[in-house]
Structure formats: structure tokens, C-alpha cells
């Protein structure tokens, strides 16, 4: 019960976000109309993906410094759940883009960046699938994880700021000012990011525990 | 040590004439396919299409020719190197050698494109600087990834799958600069992109240098 | 006290008038007739079901881990 407090916080935040996100007053903007609310549900997926991938890279580095198999399991599972978040983020983004920008794939740099991030981690899973030796698999995939993430950094954090993006916060501004993310929206948006991140951590912890049990049983 | 390894790479490469001929022919066929499919010369293509075709040809020929930097080598040879040189020296010599190879390929590609398709570039100096930068980036990323892929089962497919997402950021920057070079825009307009490309190169080379020992050990 | 009440009521009315005066079209009718609560209810049920499922998985893993330690 005591170690579970963060799960309860995540659940409570998630319920608050869904209630508030659907019913509280949202800014009235042209074109977007009622779909501003999608911000509460679409953007946290993207944030969750990046955060989970970062933790995956962190465990990859940890594994290379000290090769314990636990770090490898964690690295893979963070990447797994991050990919799930990324796919959900892309699908919700396409649905939203279809109604506000006119087509599901609009060649937006942030959209492309997210797609490439997914490609990197899909390649990562292909790499893991094609090496038989477990220890070698862990080491090589950790190396690729770190290298590919570093190569992705300009793609996600620099290029969208150089080019005109249809997303808010382009042209050197990382914030959401263009969306008029006023205090009302912040009040729901930040808890939404935190809530989905906590839920992501929870799913990862379940998967890691399952994998560790499985490893013990096969030994 | 690095110089000795570099010499060994070059002499080995020059001895295997068929490999060089193969790479050259690959580049030529790719360019020729572009030429035929567009039935160029009669109706010349616009600058954007030229840049897309050029970078596609360069990307494919560079990935295919640099893939062999570790994949082609025999198991026994790797153990022999392992006893002779440090992994850092090996990766650095590979990166330098591959940079030269990639640059040679890019320049040959440019020459072939000029001959067959035409050369709409207005600012040639900027374009060649871009080619040098992308060669460094391609070679340091591909050397490391070739090392990874050589340890796996289906190396050749894996090489393409692993390298394309990593190379996209370099390619995106290069295409943006190419656009400026094609339009002959002032050099100052592309400083941002050139700086970015340089930063990506530094990150890629530093990471390849740091991470390669972990691959080499296995 | 009375004056304060009227003042707050008046300012509230003006606030309502202000939001309605905005020209951008929103799903206001849905909110007005309360049908939005149906949507909120459905989404909440799905969400709670998902979370209950996660909790059940968590419990199952706890039990397995205990069994393994024995």
C-alpha cells in the first residue's frame, strides 16, 4: 500500500484531467473551436513518449557502465511503453490534424520528428530480434539506443524551432503561447502530462516485474 | 597506430579492384536510372527534384559502400586487430577512411549528375562544404552502425533499417543548405544550418568514439 | 450585504454575457442541455475500467512474486 502512493496520485490526476478537460471552460479560438480540448489528451502522449525514451537511454548508459541484466530489461520496457505512447500520440495527432489542418499528414516538422523517433525504436526492436546471444543483444542494443537517441535530438528539439511549424511554439519559442495556453488550460495541461507519465511508469513497472519473474523462472 | 591502420585500409582497398569498380558502377547505375526514368535533357527538372534525386543517390550509394566497413571482414581478422590495436584507434581510422570514401562518392556523384542531368547549383563552394560535412556525419554514424550490424544475423537489411532514421537529421540539414545553394542565396543565410550540421557531426563522432569499445569487446 | 449580493449576481451575469458574446462556435448546446455529462460518464467508465485492469494485473504480479520467493 505504501509504495503504491504514486499510482493513486496518477489515477486521481487522470480522473481530474478527464473531468476538468471535458467540462471546464476552454478558450474560444477560431478553427480549433471545441477541439482545443484535444490538447489535454494528445500532447501528454508525446511528452510521455519523450520522457520514457529518455529513461530508456538512461538505463542503456547504466547498463554499459555496469552490465547487470536488470538495467537492460528496464531499458527495453521503457522503450516499449514509450513506443506505445508514441503510436497513440501519432494516431490522435492525425485525427486532430485532419479536422484542423485539413489532412491527417501535413508534413509538419514535429509530426515528422515523432514519426522518425518511432522508426528509431522500431529499428531498435528489430535489432534486438536479430541477435541470438543475450549478453551481446543487450550490449549492442544499448549502444544503438544511446546513439540513435543522440542523433534524434536535433530532429525533435532543434529542427522544429528552425522551420515554420503548424504546432505552437515554433520560431525559437518552446512554449504554447500561440495557443493562448492561459492559466485555465495550464491548470489541466500540466496535471495531464504528469498523470499520463505516472501511468506510463506504472505500466513499465508491471512489465519489468513480469520480465524479471520470467527470467528467474527460465534460469 | 591510426596512420598505420589507415594505410592498411587504403592499400587493402586499392588491392581489391573489383570492390571499387562495384561501388562506382552502383553509383553510375543509380544516376543512370534517374536519368532514364525522368527522360531528362528534353524537359529539364526543377531544382527541388534535382536535390531530392541527388541526395537519394548519395544516400543509397554511401550506405551500401560504407556498410562493408565491418560487415565484410572475417571473424579471424577481427581477433587479429583486437590483439594489435585499441578499439579507439580502429574506429578513428575507420571514420577517417570512410569520410574520404564518402567524399569521393559524393564528388563522383556530383560529376555524374553534371554530365547526365545537369548542374543547377549556383553556389558551388557552399555545396562542396556541405558535401564535406555530410561525409563526416555519414561516415561516423555508418561506421558505428556497421559495427553493430556486423554482429547480428541479417546484417545487410539491418544496416539499412538501423541507419536511415539516424541519418535523417543530417540529410534534412543538408537538403536545406542545398536549397540555399541552388538558389544562390547569400552564405550568411545558411550559417545556422551549417553550424547545426557541424554540431551533429561532433555528437556523432564523439559518441562513435565512446561507444565503439563496447561493441568491439564482444 | 444585499448590495454585495446584487453586485456579484450582476457581475456573474455580465461574465455569462461575455462568454456568449464570443463569436467562436463551441458545443454550447450540448453543455446547456446536459448531454455532455453522458459523454463524460462514458469516458470515465472506460478510464476506470482500464485502471481497474491495471490494478488487477498489479495484484496478480504481487501474488506471483510472493509465490516465487517461497
UniProtKB/TrEMBL annotation, chain A:
Chain ranges of the Cytochrome c assembly protein domain = 18-156
| Localisation | Membrane
Which residue windows are transmembrane per the record? Answer: 5-24, 44-64, 76-101, 113-131, 143-162, 187-206
* A cellular component annotation (GO) from this entry: plasma membrane
Give the molecular function GO annotations. heme binding; heme transmembrane transporter activity
Biological process terms from the Gene Ontology for this record are: cytochrome complex assembly
Kindly give the InterPro entries that the UniProt entry links to this protein: Cyt_c_assembly, Cyt_c_biogenesis_CcmC, Cyt_c_biogenesis_CcsA/CcmC
Q: Which family does it belong to?
A: Belongs to the CcmC/CycZ/HelC family.
Return the protein name: Heme exporter protein C
Q: Which organism is it from?
A: Chryseotalea sanaruensis
Q: What is the lineage of its organism?
A: Bacteria, Pseudomonadati, Bacteroidota, Cytophagia, Cytophagales
From TrEMBL, chain B:
UniProt KW keywords: Membrane, Transmembrane, Transmembrane helix
**Compartment annotation:** Membrane
User: MF terms per GO, please?
Assistant: heme transmembrane transporter activity
Domain of life of the native organism: Bacteria
> What biological-process GO terms show up in the record?
cytochrome complex assembly
Q: Which InterPro entries match?
A: Cyt_c_biogenesis_CcmB
List the GO terms this entry assigns under cellular component, sorted alphabetically.
membrane
Q: Topology in the membrane? A: Multi-pass membrane protein
TM regions (residue ranges): 20-41, 47-67, 95-118, 124-145, 157-177, 197-216
Give the protein family. Belongs to the CcmB/CycW/HelB family.
Report the protein name in the record.
Answer: ABC transporter permease
Name its species. Answer: Chryseotalea sanaruensis
High-level lineage:
Bacteria, Pseudomonadati, Bacteroidota, Cytophagia, Cytophagales
TrEMBL record, chain C:
Q: Which residues cross the membrane?
A: 37-56
Name the UniProt key words of this record, in alphabetical order: Membrane, Signal, Transmembrane, Transmembrane helix
Pfam families per record: CcmD_alt
Q: Where is the signal peptide?
A: 1-21
Source domain of life: Bacteria
| Name this protein carries in UniProt | CcmD family protein
